[in-house]
Amino acid sequence: MDIPGYKIEKELGHGGMATVYLAEQESLERKVALKIMAPALAADPSFSERFLKEGKTIAQLAHANIVSIFDIGVAETTHYISMEYVGGGDLKSKIKEGNLSVESAIKIIKEVASALGFAHQKGFIHRDIKPENILFKDNGDAVLTDFGIVKAMNSDTRMTGTGMSIGTLHYMSPEQARVKTLDGRSDLYSLGIVLFEMLTGKVPYDAGDTIAVAYSHVNDPVPELPAVHARFQPVMDRLLAKEPDDRFENALQLIEMIEKIEGGVAVPRPEINSDATRVVPGQPKADKYQTGEGADGVKQSLPIISIIFGVLVVIGIGYFLLSSETLGPDQDKTEQAKSEQDMIAQDTDKQDLVKHDPAEQDPTKQDGIQLEPDKTADDKAVTKGDYVKDGAGKSGKNNIVKTDSTKQKSEQQLPQVSSYAMLDIKSKPESALVRLDGEELGKTPLFAEDIPAGKHKLELTHPYYKTFSEQIDLAKDTVLKRVVKLQGGEGAITVLSEPVGATVLIDGKKTDGKTPVTVYGVAAGRHTVKLTMENYLTRSIEIDLENAKTEIIDVDIEGGNVETFRHKDEWVTKDNKVSSLLKLAEEDMKSARYTSPKGKNALEKVKQVFAIDSDNASAKKALEKIVKYYISLSAKTAESLRLEKAEKYLRQAVSVSAVKYGTAASSIKEAERVIDSYENIEGRIFRDSLKVNMYGPEMVGVFAGTFMMGDLLGDGNRDEKPVHKVTIKDPFAIGRYEVTFDEYDYFARQTGRELPDDNGWGRQNRPVINVSWEDAQEYVKWLSAQTGKKYRLPTESEWEFVARAGTETLYSWGDESGVRNANCKNCGSEWDNSKTSPVGSFAPNEYGLYDVHGNVWEWTQDCVTRNYNNSPKDESADLSGDCKSRILRGGSWMSKARLVNSSNRGKSNIEDRTLQYGFRVVRDFP
Fold it and tell me: What is the CA radius of gyration of the chain?
């Protein structure tokens, strides 16, 4: 099977009209449920119309608890609907598993009711509410599906186009069974059946055949819920009322009643006219269906039986032809085990029973139905579970019909709500025993029903807490709620020992006195009691102390000649002392307390171990761990060019190593070498890795320092004045070269940006040109994300600091431009005034940087200002000026030599791109 745009993966379920597949919608790469109409039905326009109508209906019902429709179409002769794939299973499977909580069941009912309420407001009724049509999203929310037989409320909702009653038999409303006009209250009846099944695990009306089930929907009383669910009986009474007028008017009323019950309100059962359950008599088709006169002289008849039988034959056929498909992945298909021919044959047999001549039957039977002997006028009540009155509701000869014994009411009948109340008891902590008038009800949290109204004594007890007690007065038809915070209990511990004089610790805390001793006011609960003496082995005992009880401990303490060491308030053996010290040292190291604070650090505890056992291997490992910690700190600090601090950490490592000479000696030597390497430029050059096996620009570390910024020679422009001192407080790294085309092009391709024009000069290792300040900002953001480091443009003061490289001359090499020192308009190079030169074509300055003079103007962070009057005195960017334009530094290949000096300032709009503009980057150290 081929549906354009969809890749079918597997079958999810099938029914009489269609098969549902799990598929992938290729254009959006998403999973969908693809419902495909059975080929045998496609030729019938009525079925095709009904099938496509389902999709159009759902498309109008955009609701969180209604399955979403994506697409409707016909591929050649194949009709299909593409809809939301709901992969959390269906309600039928959850009911079969038997682990639905009451809370889950009520949540599901409220969500489906919300969906139905929305559909009803839009003018649609579902007509086939059942567990198979309630699916679950991955987050557990219920979703209503299968709108294949939905009907508009303003249309004829009695029969389908083929004359069949629509719905699924066990969930069909009385008006569906009687082929009456339907509205939204029919859906609410079916939802009531679903609620009953979730709470009890079975449907309320379940007989041996189709006819009996339909008969029960029309005639049998509303079933009683088990006592544990009695608070929801008023909901069930309204949902399963035989007459629509006795049900909820809409789904919102249902939700409101449920929420009242959830809130602890005792909702009374509704008063519903018992006549609402009667079978409405039909008209006799022939005299042979009439009985004799009854006790009241009125002729009785039984044509209703024949009518129900005939109608339900059609219902049975329609049910098996149009049983709904579901979208869940675990579809149960047992509902369609019987063939439609079997169903017709079965119902035909039922019809044959009522067509036999009465004269051929037993004298006590009419039309094949067993009748009871005459009843007196006082027999007003129906015998429990056995009989129901006829359509007229009268007693007398031939007017009582015997029903199947399975229709008996539950033996667990609830007392009248008006005489009883309920208890909802919670406690902190939980599992407190609840007693009412001395009788145990259970443990908290507790919900108890059928409590006689009136005064009672309520008690909560817990082994570790004080008993809670109060007098309560339960009003009828109410729920008494209590959340009791129990107060902690207390007890006593008596400790005896041989020999006497042992120190007693309870949960590690030393108590007053020595054995024999009694400790009062001990919190109830589990405790560890230790007895300790010098030269004796410590005894440890676990006890369970209950409220208001005294626990007695009587023990012998072994020893007298054991070498012991004091550890806190205990006397312990050598091994225990060492083990405890090492454990404490490990805890200190986890909290970074390696050598401080005094009295609470790992080094002190390791030294104590060496004092007891000078060659302890575990202590040596702990000492080495401390040494390597400081070596690591030294290396990280040196990497950020804070060499003085790095040397301090290294001296600390050496000091710790001296506790046991030679500890981590090789690691210390390597750390010294690394620190020394940062003194040279070569030791400060690095490249950060990108995410995809590539590297960022080559960077060189720059130490912090102080310099004079501006027109030092006094012959520059006004915006280079006044000369002022600037302190670079923190080390940083700056690009050794201007960013090249190779580096920028990789970024552009990765981010889908247009490549800048190279003006025909070549790309590769030439500085990138035709980039704006905004382009440069995007590059450093991307570079930061790729490396996990903080990259940015240099500030103007940082740029001049590295360009001067410790000099106070016009250029970093001196006061004269010279020849072949840079690429500018008249610098004596082969590229002068014609194009850019490859980066690194000239000698670097003292900080190891190339091309700070000429080649391309370099963007900085600073906004444009007229002078340095209010400029920062540190490495910060000046953002006080015109920030729609930014400062550029260094001059370019077409600048006069005078303009490529260390202090000259250029400016341009942040959006400008020219053949002269490029940039280099800065990286902050952590």
Answer: 45
